[in-house]
């Protein structure tokens, strides 16, 4: 098979050639866009799931939908220990520029940009020298007395309100999309929840769409108890067999090529229905196939190549971030969950390692911060990456 025509594209956040199995989520967001634009109350949205299920891809697709409807839309990726003001300022600057092309009052747009600049400048330390102060790329004077108190909760409510009103002027809305939302700091999470709460009560046309690991709802709830009612949570999981087959068949058929039913069976068995793995194994199978159609034998020949690439780019890059003590913890988890993408009791991990649970807390907490494991409830721990346990066990083989 011609590798140049290979349609499959495994990559972080890269849209697959066929976005299968997400029709329900896309249709639901279409309703959100229409309701908010008409001034109807609607909750913000949070997508949760393991790594490799396509949250980032779906987030990008939702952003594209908003832009097609004339919305302003900005997207950021949260990072641990990083302040939210700067990336959020950049995202909202992009959203305001999207709206500006439709707005008939330049002075009104500039006024909002001035508030946005005032908000952004508060990310600078108060004692920073002038030459060391960060300057956002907003070419208007900073406003005074609006979104510049230094209290992120107060400032964010005021900024969101002004940006939303700008969108209302042109009959649309604003979408703020936040990837890796579990990495947003506690104070910033609280401010986001408060701002969304304020806007939902006033019916302002601005929604936050977050994406993160499965324990994100727990983090939001710990920040603001009303977050359970503030957001609509959507769990993104592996694809059903029918959708997994379509994710492979549609791109292959568009290239006027073929694949046997046995090959589809083999690809589903090896990928487990996880979108990222489907792309990795399908790409390798296409390249390995000597002729059309792709067969189960081609999948078997290609599997080691796909697994080698996953071991380096998907699993290995994460595993390398763990210390020896953390790897010991990961191995104990892998042994307890062997063959299953499920969690384990932290007490069982301690028993397996012959340690007291309290002595393992530092390793567990560090692994959570590094995004390798998550805990959605007390006394329970699981891998954030599908098939990660199998990889860990294979490290010593």
From TrEMBL:
Record PROSITE patterns: CYTC
Gene Ontology molecular function, alphabetical: electron transfer activity; heme binding; metal ion binding
Start and end residues of each Cytochrome c domain: 168-319
Keywords for the protein's UniProt record, in alphabetical order: Heme, Iron, Metal-binding
Annotated InterPro entries: AAA_16 (IPR041664), Cyt_c-like_dom (IPR009056), P-loop_NTPase (IPR027417), WH-like_DNA-bd_sf (IPR036388)
Keyword presence, Iron: yes
SUPFAM superfamilies: P-loop containing nucleoside triphosphate hydrolases
Protein name: ATPase
Source organism: Actinokineospora fastidiosa
